[in-house]
Design a protein that fits this description.
It is built from 16 helices and 15 strands. The chain has 676 residues and is α+β, with helices and mostly antiparallel strands.
Length: 676
């Protein structure tokens, strides 16, 4: 019987091992086939059709996106009501995606394909000219890849690195001497006046990676080279029959400038737009399609786009610089905590034994935890700051783990909104805990202020900016339905979560304080000039800003210059360094303040680290003045409004973190002394 039991046990063990092996094998197969939603690869076979889509027209000079078809481009056979479904983040960015008449056949090169023939009125020519002068760019999509112009950079080692500049300009302006920013002004005659060149011919290059085993191909690159060509033709052409046909194919639709066998040359006569011309202006839109084999794999096809953003060495230098600031502050705090405080404690014990009077920070032990003025507002700001800080940490973690792929457009903004909404419980809980510590008892009103004040301020600015953008007829104006959805997220999800968190936070026992508060407040002696409140607050904000300003530059460039930013690992490190710097600066300043027998530290602790947001806002204005050439006053309004929201958020995050660090420090040092 014992042998039977042993054999049965052994067979059960083998079965369990087999089952575990099957589970692991299945998990491995699932992991091999797992892709994030919206970013799964598409396999094409030779002859499959690719259709280009188009996003909004954008410009760094106006910051106002417009729908592609706001200009009279070719739209033959396009159903304008069939717009691609967008997520919340894309709608807030002003993105609108439509189909286009541009078609490609996988693996088939096509030259001089006629898109359409247009005759534009003077008003339409003026619309094109205005958009070109304001440097608007068009953004096509093929297989979810944005079109880009190739840019080559030379490294310090002498090698050449290929990078991408997303989109392509609608045209360019030629000055009085016939020169243009693109450097092809030699082809334009000197007229003594400014001229507008329209890019009406596009040369698409689609990079594809072929899987020889499956016989399928994947798109791994989408490049464009725009040309301006004054197309001419000898005989009369019925262009209605030439749409989608290569010029000269089968002896039809012949153009003098290009054909199915000959591409557009580099020295063709450009197409100039005359805004003063009363009659109609003829424009023939054409394009080339070239397919090239590439060793780039589908999983790394975004690398070239992301390489165009930044130099990693600059980021490492910035992080090293910030880390040195943290080390300096850590050493300073270590000296305070280990040497100065130990000496203070020793003197305090000696004074107790000898009956001497207390001095320094120990003298204000009966007032150091006295509730500050406007304590309710301070608790609201702390709660909102903690909610934002926790949201930022979760957002960075998701981004670092690759859940916010650049292929999933708008995912970053959408995730930011959802995480902030669901972190409302954390904000409400924190605000209620400190509100009760400050002897407050109207927790319902406090929780409502926490839920409504910061989001309400942001929504008011956002709504005002949206009205301005709507007045410009820009696609960046958020539709009424989306505004209603945002209001529902705020009032029906975030607000109840904040109130729920406040309910649980207020029901808990108040935070333990190591010393009792005297009934009569102590008079604060006259403070030395270097301990002035405004001065210490302004000085305290410099170091946190110095730790992050390089990364702030790159983030501003990615947002306002429409560049890709995907260095979330660097950003997460900088965020950690910022949190440490804020905490350490506030602790040092608070210690010096208490040593001057000034116990009004609550608000100053919040404002000291939060002051770095003032430097962020000032730097953003300097950045706009030096890097952005805004063509419209509306662009300045949009920029200042959104940077005000960013700076306010930065103020709440850094202020709350500095306050929490200071609170823990003060409670720790006063718990180490003996009070009768």
């Amino acid at each position: 019987r014992g042998e039977l039991v042993a054999a049965h046990t052994l067979s059960m063990g083998n079965s369990a091992r087999y089952a575990l092996a099957l589970v692991l094998l299945g998990a491995a197969q699932l992991s091999l086939g797992f892709y994030l939603p919206g970013v799964a690869p598409t396999d094409y076979k030779a002859g499959d059709q690719l259709r280009a889509k188009v996003e909004a027209l954008t410009s760094v000079r106006t910051q106002l996106p417009y729908e592609y078809y706001v200009l009279p481009f070719c739209r033959d056979g396009i159903d304008m009501s069939n717009q691609e479904a967008l997520n919340l983040g894309e709608v807030l960015r002003g993105s609108r995606i439509y189909n286009t008449p541009y078609t490609m056949t996988m693996g088939m090169n096509q030259n001089c394909k006629i898109l359409c023939h247009k005759e534009y009125t003077q008003e339409e020519v003026q619309e094109f000219s205005l958009m070109i002068e304001e440097e608007y760019r068009s953004h096509f999509l093929v297989d979810n890849l944005p079109v880009a112009m190739s840019v080559f950079h030379e490294t310090e080692e002498g090698s050449t690195v290929k990078a991408y500049e997303t989109g392509y300009p609608l045209g360019h302006v030629v000055d009085e001497n016939g020169k243009s920013p693109e450097g092809d002004g030699e082809q334009v005659a000197k007229t003594g006046k400014q001229q507008i060149v329209l890019f009406n011919h596009l040369r698409f290059t689609i990079l594809m990676h072929e899987d020889a085993k499956k016989g399928t191909r994947r798109v791994v690159g989408f490049e464009v080279e725009p040309f301006s060509v004054k197309h001419t033709y000898m005989n009369k052409i019925d262009f209605s029959e030439c749409v989608g046909v290569q010029a000269g194919a089968n002896g039809q639709c012949n153009l003098n400038t290009c054909s199915a066998r000959h591409q557009v040359g580099l020295h063709e006569r450009p197409l100039l737009l005359d805004v003063n011309k009363k009659g109609k202006t003829e424009v023939i839109w054409t394009y080339d399609v070239t397919f090239q084999q590439s060793n780039i794999k589908w999983s790394t096809r975004w690398d070239t786009y992301l390489q165009s953003a930044d130099d990693a060495q600059v980021h490492w230098f910035s992080i090293l610089n910030s880390f040195m600031i943290v080390l300096f502050l850590s050493g300073l705090i270590a000296m305070i905590m280990i040497r100065t405080l130990r000496r203070d404690f020793q003197r305090y014990d000696e004074s107790l034994e000898e009956g001497q009077e207390e001095t320094g920070w120990k003298l204000v032990h009966g007032d150091v935890f006295r509730p500050p003025p406007m304590a309710g507002w301070l608790s609201v700001m702390i709660g909102s700051g903690v909610q934002l800080a926790v949201s930022a940490v979760f957002l960075m973690l998701f981004a670092c783990f690759g859940f916010l792929s650049p292929a999933n457009r708008g995912a970053l903004m959408q995730a930011m909104l959802f995480i902030f909404v669901f972190m409302g419980m954390v904000g409400g809980y924190t605000a209620a805990r400190f509100f009760r510590l400050f002897k407050g008892n109207r927790w319902k009103e406090n929780s409502l202020f926490t839920a409504l004040v910061y989001p309400g301020f942001v929504f008011a600015i956002f709504f005002s900016i949206n009205l301005v953008i709507w007045g410009q007829k820009s696609s960046g104006a958020v539709p009424f339905g989306t505004l209603l959805a945002l209001l529902c997220m705020w009032l029906l999800i975030s607000t109840p979560l904040v109130i729920g968190g406040a309910y649980f936070g207020f029901r808990k026992q108040p935070l333990d304080l190591p010393v009792r508060t005297n009934q009569i407040p102590r008079l604060v002696p006259e403070q030395p000039w270097f301990n002035n409140g405004i001065l210490t607050i302004l000085v305290g904000g410099i170091l946190p800003f110095g730790a992050v300003f390089v990364e702030v530059y790159y983030v501003l460039s990615s947002v306002w210059l429409h560049q890709f930013y995907y260095l979330f690992g660097f950003l997460f490190l900088v965020l950690v360094i910022l949190f440490l710097t804020c905490a350490e600066v506030t602790i040092v300043m608070c210690y010096f303040q208490l040593c001057s027998e000034n116990y009004h530290w609550w608000w100053r602790a919040f404002l000291t680290s939060g002051c770095c947001s003032l430097y962020v806002f000032v730097y953003s204005i300097y950045y706009a003045y030096t890097k952005l050439q805004m063509a419209r006053a509306v662009a300045g309004v949009v920029y200042v409004g959104y940077m005000a929201v960013v700076s306010l958020s930065f103020f709440l995050i850094t202020g709350a973190l500095g306050f929490l660090a200071c609170f823990l420090f003060v409670r720790q040092i006063y718990s180490a002394i003996k009070i009768d």
